[in-house]
Amino acid sequence: MTETGNPSQPANVNEYTASHIQVLEGHEAIRKRPGMYIGTTSERGLHQMVYEVVTYAVDEHLAGHADTINVTITADGSVRIADNGRGVPVEVREPAGKSAVERELTELSFGSKRHTGYGVSGGLSGLGLCVVNVLASRLTVEVHRDGHRWTQEYEKGTPVTALTRNEATSEHGTVIAFRPDAGIFETTRFSFATLSERLQELAFLNGGLAISLTDERPERPVRHHHTDGLRAYVAHLNPYPPSLVHSPAIAFESENQDKTISVQVAMQWNTRPTGEFRSFANSTRTHEGGTHEHGFRTALTNLVNDYARRHDLISPDDEDITAEALQQGLTAVISLKLAHPVFEGATKTRLGNPEANAYVQETVREHLTDWLDHHPNEATAIIRHILNAST
Asked: What is the pTM of this model?
């Protein structure tokens, strides 16, 4: 009910004018409806704040400018994320009169990342750092760039100091430290285990990137660095060597000529009744799948049936091996990176790009067919395992 005039008198229910319509804009909208931007204000949303900042550092790695990310849970409950990338730009542009780093931390940029230098990027498509800043009671940014160390402080998304040039330095990179707003989140206590699992996942998905996590509550350091990429990820998900149908895992990758889409795949069958399938788009877990998963499953089903019939592992009268049968004991990870991802929903749980379907199908058909043809013993063992598991 809307109250007007004297609060002791009942409101006129027939009075409904433009003054009753409240439009939330900018930072106010984020603080009033945080779930629209980070999914939830529960522990999951709390950790999403960290992932958004880490995503910017991962984008620097994908652009070829960073190979190390250090995440620290500090003793006072804040989180600090440091990378050795180029550093967020600090120059001032007119007519706004704001530095680039301040614009990145305070302005909403729906639909695309502000940095045109990123061919592939994750996070909230230009909203990430701003959303984190607005939902933090305190945030400090430290940039090593252009020969100096630059610093600025914010409270609830509003700068409380100017961007300050400090001492000279030859280092480069960005450090962002923030404390989540206790008035927004159900809990402000970060889970070491939760953060470690996601950071390890990012290290698997971005081979060559070293990510460390330190907890100062007490100190508990861990470092994730996997040069073997998705093959190491599958080995992590398949920790029981005696149950493996073949080893090592099958792994391949491909990138189109324009470098607008690339895919990495690793897969391995084991004799356990269940497997695990994980798909990602721009390092974001697509829990509900999407076009990249459909392309993978379609190509896998078709080419395995084709191989089995060409090598008389199933007779012409036998029915095709089903997609469900192929999943018996299959552990697979597919990681797609594309310049213009289309996700369904703000939390990015399902990929919708039609070109992803076609490209993944083409890549799987080419590379997995080649692997099967060059590994006949392993190929036969895989198909016999599938046939036995489905009977």
From this structure: 0.83
